[in-house]
């Protein structure tokens, strides 16, 4: 029984090691995204869904509506229910209709 000896050139070895490093990095990024960024298969919340339940600060009170600061942006809002909001109050976003927030 003869054993075949394969001679690998230095360039092929460097190429193999480089591709292994790049592939390992890509696999690590994919695993991190799968298990850390989106745990349990949930997609990140964006848009309207990301705003509901978050807090905002009342910046202006006018007849019929208020303005609130949410995530460094000023939004027009309406207070729902029998609640009343004053300037400086913290309100909770309950819904978004068009570009108006419904808060309480």
Please specify the SSE layout and strand pairing.
Blueprint lengths: L9 H28 L10 H4 L3 E8 L2 E6 L2 E7 L10 E8 L2 E4 L1
Parallel strand pairs: 3-5
Antiparallel strand pairs: 1-2, 1-4, 2-3, 4-5
How would you describe this protein?
- The chain contains two helices and five strands.
- The mean pLDDT is 87.
- The relative contact order is 0.14.
- A hairpin with a 2-residue loop joins strand 4 (90-97) and strand 5.
- The chain is rod-shaped.
- With 104 residues, it is of the alpha+beta class.
- The protein has two domains: 10-41; 48-103, OB fold (Dihydrolipoamide Acetyltransferase, E2P).
- The chain has a five-stranded mixed barrel with strand order 1-2-3-5-4.
Key phrases:
104 residues, alpha+beta, OB fold (Dihydrolipoamide Acetyltransferase, E2P), 5-stranded mixed beta barrel, rod-shaped
Multimeric state: single chain
- Rough shape? rod-shaped
Integer tally of domains:
2
Number of strands: 5
Biggest β-sheet description = 5 strands, mixed, barrel
Q: In a few lines, what is going on in this structure?
A:
The protein is an alpha+beta fold and 104 residues long. The chain folds into two domains: 10-41; 48-103, OB fold (Dihydrolipoamide Acetyltransferase, E2P) (Beta Barrel), CATH 2.40.50.140.
């Amino acid at each position: 029984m003869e054993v075949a000896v394969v001679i690998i050139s230095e360039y092929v070895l460097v190429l193999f090691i480089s591709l292994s490093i790049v592939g390992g990095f890509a696999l690590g990024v994919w695993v991190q995204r799968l298990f850390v960024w989106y745990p349990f298969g949930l997609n990140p919340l964006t848009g309207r869904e990301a705003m509901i339940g978050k807090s905002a600060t009342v910046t202006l009170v006018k007849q019929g509506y208020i303005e609130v600061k949410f995530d460094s942006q000023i939004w027009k809002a309406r207070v729902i229910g029998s609640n009343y909001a004053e300037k400086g109050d913290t309100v909770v976003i309950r819904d978004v209709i068009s570009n108006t927030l419904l808060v309480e």
